[in-house]
Amino acid sequence: MPLGIPLTDEERAVYEWQIWVPGFGEAGQERLKSASVLVSRCGGLGSVVAYELAAAGVGKMVIAHAGNVKPSDLNRQLLMTHDWLGKPRVESAKRRLNDLNPRLEIVTVPENINESNAAEIVEQVDLIVDCAPLFNERYCMNREAVRQRKPLVECAMYDLEAQLTTIVPGQTPCLACLYPDDPPAWKREFPVFGAVSGTVGCLGAMEALKLLGEFGEPLTGELLTMDLRDMTFRTRKLRRNQDCHVCGSL
Amino acid sequence: MNVTVEYAAQVKRATGISRETVELVNGETLKDLIPMLTERHGDEFHALLMEESGKLQPSILLFIGDEQVDWDESRKLTDRDVVTFLSPISGG
Ligand SMILES: [Zn+2]
Predict the structure, then answer these.
(1) Model confidence at A207, in pLDDT bands (50, 70, 90)?
(2) Cα(A172) to centroid of ligand 1, in Å?
(3) What contacts B84, CB < 8 A, 6 or more positions away?
(4) Angle, helix A25-33 to helix A194-213, in steps of 10 degrees
(5) Chain B residues near any Cβ of chain A (below 8 Å)
(6) What is the span of the domain harbouring residue B71?
(7) With an 8 Å Cβ cutoff, are B84 and A236 in contact?
(8) What is the CATH number of the domain that holds A188?
(9) Residue B92 falls within a domain, yes or no?
(10) Which residues partner with A61 through β-bridges?
(11) What is the average pLDDT value for chain A, to the nearest integer?
């Protein structure tokens, strides 16, 4: 994880209230400043992950998301705005993130993660937050996270339910340990409220901050499930698959 | 004896309920329990859970209590166990 870059007086003033957090402190803030994160995609989940990480003072963010803003994005993709309909999503996201934090270095990739771009994009960052809807995108990120030994925060939702886990290659199950092949039942479009994706986005951002800032206890090897219909939150232990075709040799 | 069975995401949508109690005689394994559930909940549920080969879909995560388990392990269920079926979900 990153070693840290000394803060300026301005940064000390902006981040003062979180520097007070026990176990984090100025050393944690310096680590965030030197850290880089990939958020893919910046939809309902990724918008909120990216916004919280920008607010917290992560130094560099790569945001990958194809396509233009559509009306049906606007119930949850909080970095997209009405005036940006029909224009590239990553541009809307960059503009909103830099409004909040002009110090944040942002690399925009107007593509979703795929077989051909995953390696090069993951090489640019210390940590990945996977907010993608399609399993083939998620498998590409997982494969590169394992190959490059980088932590991967996995965020997912459906209806009023959500799941979150943090993958540390070699220590925890990877995505392919849990789901070896593209699940046949998963459909691209699914029912969701912005308040559900936002909840998971905040929790995913918190996982990234703990790993980068080196404090707290991340959800490594555990799956947090939540059902916001009745506010049931549970944490369950996950198992590595020793025969996993992605991480089995680690 | 009774076990509680919980369903999440698309599995929950297929059953229409998030949890139920199932009465067992004694000594049943998960492999015995699953056909009892597919009989209750019909074809959509069966198709989500089972492959044509008769094995559990590999992307369904199964838990007894807080521990992830294999569907075909020999452990016998005990009174008041909580069995959870999680179907895969994703971001967006
Ligand atoms: Zn694996």
Answers:
(1) very high
(2) 8
(3) A236, B5, B6, B7, B8, B62, B63
(4) 110
(5) 8-10, 12-13, 18, 47-48, 57-59, 61, 63, 66-68, 84, 86-92
(6) 2-86
(7) yes
(8) 3.40.50.720
(9) no
(10) A37, A106
(11) 96
CA closest to B67 among chain A residues: A237
SS3 of residue A203 by DSSP: helix
Average pLDDT estimate for B47-58: 92
Q: What is the mean pLDDT of residues A22-44?
A: 97
Expressed as residue numbers, the domain containing A144 is 9-237
| pTM for this entry | 0.96
B70: domain CATH number is 3.10.20.30
B13 interaction partners in chain A (CB closer than 8 Å): 159
Contact status, residue A34 vs residue A4, Cβ threshold 8 Å: yes
Domain membership of residue B91 (yes or no) is: no
Q: What would the mean pLDDT of B13-30 be, rounded to a whole number?
A: 93
Q: Which value, to the nearest 10 degrees, does the dihedral of the CA atoms of residues A18, A22, A27, A33 take?
A: -30
Q: How confident is residue A249, by pLDDT bands cut at 50, 70 and 90?
A: very high
Give the pLDDT score at A3. Answer: 83
ipTM above 0.95, yes or no: no
A95 preceded by a cis bond (ω within 30 of 0): no
Separation in Å, CA of B59 to nearest CA in chain A? 5
So what's the pLDDT on residue A160? Answer: 94
Instruction: Evaluate if residue B26 carries a pLDDT over 90.
Output: no
Q: What is the pLDDT of residues A129-147, one digit of tens each?
A: 999 999 999 999 999 999 9
Contact B90 A179 (CB under 8 A): no
Share above pLDDT 70 across residues of chain A, in percent, rounded to a whole number = 98
Q: Is A77 on the interface with B (CB under 8 A)?
A: no
- Domain assignment present for residue B60? The answer is yes
- Asked if the structure places residue A157 within a domain, the reply is yes
Rounded-to-integer distance, Cα A43 and Cα B10, Å: 21
Domain count, chain B: 1
Least CB–CB distance from B61: residue in A130, A178, A229:
A178
Asked if the structure places residue A32 within a domain, the reply is yes
Name which of B10, B48, B89 is nearest A156 (Cβ-Cβ): B89
Q: How far is the CA of A44 from the centre of ligand 1 (A)?
A: 27
For residue A60, tell me if it sits in a domain: yes
CA distances A143 to A82, A128, A139, A212, B8, Å, are: 36, 12, 6, 21, 27
Cβ-Cβ contacts under 8 Å, B47 against chain A: 185
Any domain includes A134: yes
